[in-house]
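Our platform keeps sequence and structure together, in a single record for each protein. Because each token names a local backbone shape, the row as a whole describes the fold. One such record is reproduced below, unchanged from the form in which we store it:
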Amino acid sequence: MSYDWIIDVLFWVAVVFLVGVYVSWRATRLDRLHVRVETARAALDAALVRRAAAALELAASRLLDPAASLVLATAAHEARTADADNREFAESDLSRALRAVVDQPDFAGALTAGAPGDGEAALDELTSAAARVGYARRFYNDAVRQARAARRRPLIRVLPLAGRAPLPDFFEIDDDPPGA
């Protein structure tokens, strides 16, 4: 009695099992990349809110001239209240406003004219928040780049492994720190 058909069946069962394991692994990898994008986006949003808060604090500190305070406060408010479509533009405007205020010739003198240490503390907070925005944006864009690369793979496109998850977009803003 020949049992060659059993070997053939076991072979095809093993092939189907291994293909299923590979497809499951790719789907899990893609899901983890999407979670990474969402986590990086939350960190980026937190960094942007912290930078806007630091800018508002500096604008309200009375260490700047009224015109600079108004420009800074307006840009920070616009950045905090912008909708998703205009967020990148508003954040870029805040970056430019921060550089315009910090790059003024008498900026250092205005900070030291206030209470000792207040101006320097506000500037340190602002500088730290601006640096964190740059790092958070790079991490987010790196996560988006990896997720997009994974979604371009033929297996992901042929089998709808991405489900209904939207294709993540890059976040491009002018995030050069003030005083640079």
